[in-house]
Write a structure and sequence with these properties.
Blueprint (H helix, E strand, L loop, with lengths): L1 H11 L5 E4 L6 H12 L7 E5 L5 H9 E2 L11 E2 L1 H4 L4 E5 L6 H13 L1 E3 L6 E3 L3 E6 L3 H6 L5 H7 L2 E4 L10 H16 L5 E2 L1 H9 L5 H15 L4 E2 L1 H5 L14 H19 L4 H8 L3 H11 L6
Parallel strand pairs: 1-8, 1-9, 2-5, 5-8, 10-11
Antiparallel strand pairs: 3-4, 6-7
Length: 302
């Protein structure tokens, strides 16, 4: 991810076609938007996203290239296609591997000539775009199977950015979790939730087959269902979740003390140090909380 971050400014200087690959949910559109922002920091130019898998084959040409009034039944006015809408900015073709072969040859022509012809018209309309494509499929394999045009593949694959799945970059998981919890608190105007040590470990252990999208959904669901200041594995993954405990402490007493200290500290942080509210969340009295804080040395460094 650091390599991708270092490459983006170089790509932003030139109008080079970029292919972003990776599993569903890894953040391909986020990278595309980051590239556009480097080219246009004020977002004055258009950024048009097209999900190639969501448009039926019969409508794809009209949606991509536009149409003129009377071109077909229901065409009651002229309409710009996605290429024209993105003129001057960025066109992001998501899931391009889903595009039918009949449309691929037309797309190739437009990419080469940088001109579109609306359905029902003859005039060519010049377009000036930064083209970014994305797919969760292996296009080279599709080319070998005759499912994707080889000439189009090499046209869009001028430079490939491969986004690794979240399970291969575990060091990002807790960092992303922090960002998402910050955003959740701001969105709902509530105190920021914290994670128990076991919850953090559970996040690291989970395979995240849905990648960042799955992580975001998991945290959103937990924040909705739980009123606790500190999220636990059971809240994140359900009460059937089995906590994995590694005996890294010198003794059971040390481990329990370390866990208890972290849990109390995170609760206090979530309640901005308010003892009464923190005690209520922990399910103990204020006196008991004071005694535990004194025993564990919490707050002594302040």
């Amino acid at each position: 991810m650091r390599h991708i971050e270092s490459v983006l400014p170089k790509l932003a200087r030139d109008k080079i076609t970029v292919l972003i690959t990776g599993e569903s949910g890894v953040g391909k559109e986020v990278v595309a938007r980051a590239l556009h922002k480097l080219r246009d920091p004020e977002w004055r130019l258009p950024f048009i996203t097209v999900n190639c898998a969501a448009i039926t084959e019969t409508l794809l040409e009209a949606e991509m290239f536009g149409y003129v009034k009377g071109a077909y039944t229901g065409a009651v006015r002229d309409k710009k296609g996605y290429f024209e809408q993105a003129n001057g900015g960025t066109l992001f073709l998501d899931e391009i591997g889903e595009m039918p072969l009949s449309m691929q040859v037309k797309l190739l022509r437009v990419i080469q000539e940088r001109k579109v012809v609306r359905v029902g018209a003859e005039a060519q309309i010049p377009v000036d775009i930064n083209l970014v494509c994305a797919t969760n499929k292996v296009l080279k394999t599709m080319v070998e199977a005759g499912e994707f045009r080889e000439d189009l593949y090499y046209r869009i694959n001028v430079l490939e950015l491969q986004i690794p799945p979240l399970r291969e970059r575990k060091e990002d998981i807790l960092w992303l979790t922090g960002l998402m919890l910050d955003a959740e608190a701001i969105q709902h105007g509530s105190a920021r939730r914290e994670m128990s040590p076991e919850a953090e470990q559970a996040l690291l252990d989970n395979p995240w087959n849905g990648n960042i999208r799955e992580l975001k959904s998991c945290l959103e669901r937990a924040c909705i269902l739980s009123s606790q200041a500190v999220l636990t594995p059971e809240v994140l993954f359900g009460h059937g979740y089995e906590v994995k405990v590694e005996a890294t402490a010198s003794s059971l007493t040390d481990y329990l003390g370390s866990y208890e200290r972290h849990y109390i500290e995170q609760t206090l942080k979530g309640k901005e140090g308010r003892i009464a509210e923190s005690a209520a969340v922990l399910g103990i009295s204020r006196k008991t909380l004071w005694e535990k804080m004194k025993k564990l040395g919490i707050g002594e460094d302040k």
